[in-house]
């Protein structure tokens, strides 16, 4: 899910950078917090007020969104199907894909609408939350700044959690390679994590994005090559459809849901992509950039999941590359490719939470200590992700935990809550269908969060 980011300070007349991150510099003091009448809201068109340095076409926006949604998570889909079965996995992926797409739609639609109310050209995720609370029911307005900070930190922790998952994949992949060539080695998981700690500490000290961004393209090429090699092995004499169960015990379903949501959600990059479109009105709607992209994503994830599950069944690992025979050259290449790709993805992903954390803490640090404070902060969080990786046993269980805990909140619950709050005083639709729909989504997201976390923790304890 790596994406390139350019950071720039903004006011309410924003100039959005090419890669479209809208940082959390718009606060309640720069947002018009008074609710407008419908006719006054329509006077302001946020799309016409955006000043884009390099606006993206619909095709380029589609490519950026596809790139952000298609990452290493697709390699975890066979393990997800292992916790669902063939038929349940297929229909479950389609249903979850539709739900995730609709929640992304709610986030973007709410952001566009609240921009119109607040008279700002565009907003990021955290700023959208702040503006929704600031222009919502009066009893909630005092929470607006707190909610922006809360979502900021939730986003940072989510990406740091993903970084910990990357470290686990790095360790398991390298361990397989080393064990193949040196069977008698006595290295354990902790030692492998310590081996990765040194290069991670070095590369995460890079504070200028222009030195990191080129690695993104290289990582994407390696991921594509890895994906093709995996398809070659998967499609080579895999069992019949009837050889795998159509459904598995329902108690394993939360792990399936958490893994699919982790793999599919690119909630953090959706608004940056929409914010940089030359014609942002083409992002939503039918067909629309969002619907076309997510249709392709769901189909690819479903195909990878079912084919990988038919091939490897209950031994499918958290990344399908771990199932490939290390003794064969193409498989060994795939494992080396995924190590390099994930390492560079880690470095790029790590940049984003560090920007968020620093943005929320730099005011408390004297300016003369900014450089050393940033270095200490980056080292601390890098070490934290490695410690988390060393403490957790299995990749697929951690992916399920990350998806259930973080992505269900940011991807399912938060967009539904924002839509409900924004519409509360502006109309909940005929028969209050918005209230009913959003409540169902919030309940579902909460169910995924609670059951997914419980089941993942249970599996982690069992494995230990």
Explain what you see:
There is one protein chain. This protein has about 475 residues and is mainly alpha-helical. The protein has a single domain (about 15-25, about 50-464), classed as Amino acid/polyamine transporter I, CATH 1.20.1740. Helices cover about 65% and strands about 0% of the residues. The chain contains 16 helices and 2 strands. The protein has helices at about 40, 45-50, 60-70, 75-80, 85-120, 125-135, 145-180, 190-205, 215-235, 255-265, 265-275, 290-310, 330-360, 370-390, 395-425, 435-464; strands spanning about 15, 50. It has a two-stranded parallel ribbon with strand order 1-2. Helix 5 (about 85-120) packs antiparallel against helix 12 (about 290-310) and helix 10 (about 255-265) packs across helix 15 (about 395-425). The longest helix is centred in the middle third of the chain and has 38 residues, at about 145-180. The radius of gyration is 22 Å and the shape is globular. About 50% of the residues are buried. The model is unreliable at about 1-30 (pLDDT under 50).
């Amino acid at each position: 899910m790596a994406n390139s980011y350019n950071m720039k300070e903004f006011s309410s007349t924003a100039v959005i950078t090419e890669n479209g991150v809208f940082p959390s510099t718009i606060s309640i003091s720069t947002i018009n917090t008074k609710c407008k009448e419908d006719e006054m809201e329509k006077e302001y068109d946020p799309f016409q007020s955006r000043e884009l340095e390099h606006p993206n076409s619909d095709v380029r926006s589609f490519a950026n969104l596809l790139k952000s949604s298609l990452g290493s998570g697709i390699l975890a889909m066979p393990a997800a199907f292992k916790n669902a079965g063939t038929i349940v996995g297929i229909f479950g992926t389609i249903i979850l894909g539709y739900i995730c797409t609709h929640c992304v739609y709610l986030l973007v639609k709410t952001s566009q609408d609240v921009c119109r109310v607040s008279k700002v050209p565009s907003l990021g995720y955290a700023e959208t939350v702040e503006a929704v609370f600031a222009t919502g029911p009066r009893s909630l307005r005092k929470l607006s700044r707190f909610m922006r900070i809360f979502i900021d930190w939730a986003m940072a922790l989510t990406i740091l959690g993903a970084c910990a998952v990357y470290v686990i994949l790095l360790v398991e992949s390298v361990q397989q390679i080393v064990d193949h060539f040196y069977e008698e080695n006595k290295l354990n998981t902790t030692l492998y994590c310590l081996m990765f700690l040194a290069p991670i500490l070095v590369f995460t000290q890079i504070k200028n994005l222009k030195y990191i961004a080129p690695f993104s393209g290289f990582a994407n090429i390696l991921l594509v090559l890895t994906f093709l090699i995996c398809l070659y092995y998967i499609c080579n004499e895999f069992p019949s459809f009837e050889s795998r169960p159509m459904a598995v015990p329902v108690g394993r379903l939360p792990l399936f849901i958490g893994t699919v949501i982790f793999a599919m959600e690119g909630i953090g990059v959706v608004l940056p992509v929409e914010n940089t479109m030359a014609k942002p009105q083409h992002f939503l709607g039918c067909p629309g950039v969002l619907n076309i992209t997510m249709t392709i994503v769901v189909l690819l994830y479903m195909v990878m999941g079912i084919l990988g599950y038919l091939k490897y069944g209950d031994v499918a690992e958290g990344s399908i590359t771990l199932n490939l025979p290390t003794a064969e050259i193409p498989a060994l290449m795939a494992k080396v490719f995924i190590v390099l790709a994930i390492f560079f993805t880690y470095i790029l992903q790590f940049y984003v939470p560090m920007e968020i954390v620093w943005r929320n803490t730099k005011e408390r640090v004297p300016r003369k200590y900014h450089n050393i404070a940033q270095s200490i902060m980056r080292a601390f969080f890098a070490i934290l992700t490695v410690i988390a990786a060393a403490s957790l046993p299995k990749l697929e269980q951690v992916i399920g935990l990350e998806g259930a805990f973080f992505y269900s909140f940011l991807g399912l619950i938060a967009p539904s809550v924002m839509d409900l709050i924004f519409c509360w005083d502006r109309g909940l639709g005929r028969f209050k269908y918005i209230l009913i729909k959003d409540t169902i989504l919030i309940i579902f997201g909460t169910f995924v969060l609670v059951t997914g976390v419980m089941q993942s923790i249970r599996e982690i304890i069992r494995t230990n």
